Structures are given as structure tokens and as C-alpha cells.
Amino acid sequence: MSETISCQRIQAAYQRSRAELLSLRNSTGHWTGELSTSALSTATAIMALEMIRRKRPPADLSLNTYIDNGIRWLAEHQNSDGGWGDTVKSFSNISTTMLCHAVFHATKSTEQYVSHVVNARQYIDRVGGVEAVVARYGKDKTFSVPILTHCALAGLVKWKTIPALPFELACLPARFYKTVRLPVVSYALPALIAIGQVRHHFCKPRNPITRLIRKLAVKRSLKKLISIQPSNGGFLEAAPLTSFVTMSLAGMGLTDHPVVQKGLQFLLDSVRPDGSWPIDTNLATWTTTLSVNALEGTLAEFEKTPIREWLLQQQYKELHPYTSAEPGGWAWTDLPGGVPDADDTPGAILALLNLQPDEPDTQQPADLQVALRNGVKWLLDLQNSNGGWPTFCRGWGALPFDQSAADISAHVIRALQAWLQTEPESAEAELRLRAERAVRKCFKYLATVQRPDGSWLPLWFGNQHVENDENPVYGTARVLAAYAQGEQCGSIQAEQGILFLKSVQNLDGGWGGATSAPSSVEETALAVDTLLALGLEPADPVVAQGLNWLSGRVENGTYTETTPIGFYFAKLWYFEQLYPIIFTVSALHRAETVLKKSADDNLRLSLEEEDYPIMSVKEK
Q1: 15, 16, 430, 595: most buried by Cβ count inside 10 Å?
Q2: For the purposes of burial, counting CB atoms within 10 Å of the CB of 598, is it exposed (0-12), middle (13-18) or buried (19 or more)?
Q3: What pLDDT, on the 0 to 100 scale, is given for residue 257?
Q4: Which neighbouring-strand residues pair with 572?
Q5: pLDDT of 1
Q6: d(Cα 610, Cα 262) in Å, to the nearest integer?
Q7: Which segments of 113-225 are extended strands (E)?
Q8: Range from 209-218, 519-528, 595-604 that averages highest in pLDDT
Q9: Is 317 helix (H, G, I), strand (E, B) or coil?
Q10: Which of 182-191, 543-552, 557-566 has the lowest mean pLDDT?
Q11: DSSP three-state, residue 567
Q12: Are the beta carbons of 242 and 266 closer than 8 angstroms?
């Protein structure tokens, strides 16, 4: 069915969504956003508080309200199948259900919530219990061991069934971590220490040498834990990770330990009024850079200045104590628990380039120029030998978050290409050459990880309606955005990626994560935005259908509805209030720009024809 596209309709939808996005700025002029509440976070936070409560005098009731409110929230948000999902919009999964089920037992709430506990137990038995948890994460112990530890603290799992974590390895200098191949990913060092210790506390190894080594490593690894804990107590600003550390140390009696006390304060500070906890405090840096890049230069100078100054302040100027990352990168948040990474750093570079002063012929401010160069150097030093980029640490391990990822690598390419276009050729010649080589090498990497159907898979995003929770629409859209910027636009890889996006468009004109997945605002906007960036016209039937679907959602006000497409650490689902709005603004802004340019070109041609009438061959 052919589709027509109205320029006025696109413009109206863009202006409405843009106004909404601008209205969601905070008092300092940038964006904070709001992450989804999490049943998993709530369950782990309750367990941490319960482990502390058990060691306090019976008369101390200070934690009771937090625990009771959390348990009540879990009971009210149990799915009809007896399980829990990570968000209130998520399907049930074995990990979150086992965590939730355990806290009803740990807090002695089973009699008060009999039906909830029975239904949860039936779900767990039906899905596969402990074996299903282990199978879900495979060789990666980053999350399976903490889940089982949580259940062991509740008395539901035997300690001897939980794999021991070699927490003594944390005593090694950080430069050796990638050599020893830790059984957890780079960001999970606090869990390795705390959970490794509580398992050792309750179940000592039989080998006397191993037992002695771990006994000697207890105090030293706890000092390491103190040194990497953020000032506000929240590891990665994440309630689950902070809770796992806190419950483990408290579970072995260390309730007065400074790590426990700071972890407790973080949890009390981050609980929401309804008694639940989010997966993380905020993604302020990430949502701000996404918003700035979606608006792409349309902000006034008085709006740009405070955002630019704030972003410059978020760049790390010192060695990071957590991952030993060199200065120059950006994290996802402005809070102490953030860690610089290869997705937020290119986002910040692109945003800063979009936030340059408007005055013509004005050079980049010195502080901006230095920040950009330092960010570029940081990314170049992080590139893996295969040409791609990992999230946090180069060559740390073989687990997914430490391996090269297609969507992150493509984001880096976009930032490097944009920087190369603005950096004077006379300056930092060696840095320019490194960036150019890195881009070429990364495109080769992207070609090797493109799937036979033309798609790419992302690391940090998924779709619960797609097999294996994959989201090839998100991944392909993000990777193709890198192909759209340079000489690779007409490559075979780009053509195959375009064909893939076209092939999985739904009959309603929108996109989900893949074929047959329900259309969402986020995925539809991303697909449309990318296809336009690659040169497809708004009048192209596929693009026109997507634009009309998206415009319709703006017109009926449902474009702000969120979809749980985000993966946080270890496949923890989330949704973010700003995602659908940001992605909608970006797609409609690009469409409006293309339509306006087309109209201007037509007007210019019309005027030229009036000034220079076209003559027939005979008249010549």
C-alpha cells in the first residue's frame, strides 16, 4: 500500500515532541531522566536490609518500614504466572523470581503472603530452579553466583552448591586482572570480593593451601573493597550490586564495616516513595548527550552553555579507582558511582561538538578542544586488537561486557569521524592518523560480526519478544548510523543492513526488535532515523509508513510510552522515561530537515527556471 507523507504533519509532530523533551530538563539545564523501578533491585535491597536488621537489637525498628514497604510492593507487582520480571512491563524470569521469592522467606513474611509465596514456588519449580539460573548465564558467574548467594542467605540454597569465587585475586595489582582471567566481568570486582568472602565464610574449601590463601586474603581484599567504593556508597550507582555486596558482608557478621554502612546509606537514600528501588540512580550523562545529539544544533547559545560546561565537568581527570581507567572518558551518570566507558564517551564527544558556540569563524574554546582530544585519546587506547571496542576495559576477559561490541564500536566510529571533521589538520597530526586508522580497522571488525541476514546485535539492549532476548533492529540501526557518515554509506554491509531493516518492518508501519515483535516508539524511531541518515527519502514507502506511524503516536499522545528494551548489567531489563521521546525527536528532526531541504531545492530550481527558461533543442 502506498503512503503519502505530509510535511506539515511531520513538522507539527516534531515541534510537539521537541517541546516535551525540552520541558523535561532539570533546573540546571540538562537532563536526568527516570529509570524504571525494578523488582530485582527491590528484592536485593530488602535482603541487604534484612541481613543488617538481624544483627541489630530487637528494639531497633529503624529498618522495618523500608522492608515492609518493599515486600508489599513486590506482592502487588507479582505477575499472573507467579513470577516477577525485572520491570513492571517485563515477562517473568527465573532470576528475579528466585530473588523475590527468597526475601519473603528471609523476612518471615510467608504467612502474611501465602498465595504469593506458593505461586512463586510453583513458577520456580516449573521453570527449573537453580539449574535454570546457572543455564541462563552460562560461564559468566557475574550474576548467577550472587543470585544463589542471595537465596543461600535466605536458607533456600545450600552453600556447597554455590561456586566459590577467587576473591584473593582482587589482591593482585589491577594490571594483572586481565591476565588471570577473572570469572566475573570487569565491573563486578566488588561482587567478586564480597560474595567470594561470604561463601568462604560459610563453606571453606577442602584444599588446605587454598583455605590458607583465602584466609590471608580476607583483610587485604576488604581494604581493596573500601578503596573502590564510591563516596556515596553505591557501586556503579546500582542498587543490585550495592545490595549484593552489603548483604554478603552483613551476612557474615560485618554489619559495622564501613562498606556495609555506606552501602546501607546508599540504599536508604535511593528507595522510592512507593517502597521500591530502581536499577540505578540515573543515566544523566547518557540521557543528556542523547538529547543534545537528537536536537542536533537547534539549541540556542544560552541553552548550550550550561550543558556544555556541565558535560566538561563530567569528564574524568584522574585515574579511576574502580577499573584503573585512564583520564579522558565519560560515564553514564554524574554521580560518584559512575565508571567511564566506550558508549558514553563517544556520546559526550558528539554532544560537545553539537554544543559548540554558534558564532561563525569562532575557534573551539581551548577547554573544549582539550577535552575532545583527551576523549579521543581515551577511546583510541581502549580499542581491542580485533578493531572493535569493549565497554570498560581493553582485553580484560572473554566475557561479553569485556569483549568488542558492534553497537558500541559503531558509536565510537561516529564520534571519531565527527571529531576528524572539526579538528584542524595541522593540529595533533599523529592523533588524527591514529583515529583514521582506528576507524578503518573498526569497519573491518563490523563487517566480520554482521549476521547473514544483514543485522548486527547490540550488547546493552534487547527485546523480550524476540528469541534469546535479542534486538537486531536496535543493533542494526545503531551500527548503520556509523555507515551513514562516511565512505561506507554505499558498502555491501550498509546495503544488507538496510535490506534487513526493511524486511522486519511490521504491517502497521512500525518496528519492534525483529519480525513479529510488537512495534515500539523507540525501535520505530531508531529505524526511521537511520534509514533517513543513509539517504532514503521520506517519500520512500518504508520510511513514509514509519513516519506516519510515529507521527500518529505523537498526535494521540502515546509516543511517551516506554518499552523495556534496555539491558543493564547481566541482562537486567529496564526502561527509561526519556528514550521514546529522545528517539522520536531525533527521527522527526531528521525528517523535517530532509523535507525542508527538498522544498528549498525545489523552490531554487523553480526560480532558476524562471530566470533562465528551458529552451527546446530546436530553439537552441
Answers
A1: 595
A2: middle
A3: 97
A4: 568
A5: 47
A6: 75
A7: none
A8: 519-528
A9: coil
A10: 182-191
A11: strand
A12: yes
C-alpha cell at 318: 584522574
Rounded Cα distance between 242 and 236, Å, is: 8
- The C-alpha cell at 428 is 595533533
C-alpha cell at 583: 528517539
Reduced to 3 states (helix: H, G, I; strand: E, B; else coil), residue 222 is helix
- Asked whether 521 and 561 are in contact (CB, 8 A), the reply is yes
Report CA torsion sign: 145, 330, 222, 246: negative
* pLDDT for residue 138: 77
Q: Which pTM does this prediction carry?
A: 0.92
Contacts of 388 (CB under 8 A, 6+ apart): 403, 404, 405, 406, 408, 409, 442, 445, 446, 449
Q: Please tell me the distance from the alpha carbon of residue 255 to that of residue 52, in angstroms, as a whole number.
A: 6
Give the 3-state secondary structure of residue 572: strand
* Cell 500518529, residue located: 552
Alpha carbon dihedral 86, 90, 92, 97, in 10-degree steps, equals 20
pLDDT of residue 287: 98
Q: What is the pLDDT of residue 148?
A: 96
**Phi, psi dihedrals of residue 444, rounded to the nearest 5°:** -65, -40
DSSP per residue over 266-297, as a string?
Answer: HHHHH--TTS-EESBS--HHHHHHHHHHHHTT
The C-alpha atoms of residue 184 and residue 274 are separated, in whole angstroms, by: 33
Positions of E strands within 472-571 = 566-568
Cα 63 to Cα 46: distance, rounded to the nearest angstrom: 10
> What is the C-alpha separation between 463 and 237, in angstroms, rounded?
24
Asked if the model's pLDDT at residue 535 lies above 70, the reply is: yes
73-84 per-position pLDDT tens digit: 999 999 999 999
**Per-position DSSP letters for 2-28, written without gaps between them:** -----HHHHHHHHHHHHHHHHHTB-TT
- Inter-helix orientation angle 472-483/521-533, to 10°: 20
Residue 40 Cα distances to 77, 101, 260, angstroms: 12, 11, 20
On whether the CB atoms of residues 103 and 110 are closer than 8 A, the answer is no
Helix 258-270 to helix 39-53 angle (10° resolution) is: 130
Q: Identify the weakest region by mean pLDDT among 25-39, 238-252, 587-601.
A: 587-601
Q: What are 508's three cell numbers?
A: 502497521
Q: What pLDDT shows up at residue 139?
A: 74
Specify whether the CB–CB gap between 79 and 85 falls below 8 A.
yes
Cell of 301: 547559545
Q: Which of 222, 242, 220, 219 is nearest to 230 (CA)?
A: 242
Distances from the Cα of 531 to the Cα of 234, 413, 414, 491, 576, angstroms: 40, 18, 16, 14, 24
Give the H or E element holding residue 573.
strand 572-574
Cβ pair 230, 336 in contact under 8 A: yes
One-letter amino acid of 105: H
Q: What is the identity of the amino acid at 88?
A: V
In which residue are the cell numbers 513516519 written? Answer: 547
pLDDT tens profile 284-318: 999 999 999 999 989 999 999 999 999 999 999 99
- Listed in sequence order, the DSSP H helices in 423-504 are 429-449, 472-483, 492-503
CA dist., res. 616 & res. 601, Å (int): 23
Read off the pLDDT of residues 397-438 as tens digits, 9 standing for 90 and up.
566 667 899 999 999 999 999 999 988 776 678 999 999 999
d(CA 224, CA 227): 5
Question: CA–CA distance from 180 to each of 357, 396, 398 (Å)?
Answer: 47, 9, 11
pLDDT in tens, 457-510: 999 999 999 998 999 999 999 999 999 987 788 899 999 999 999 999 999 999
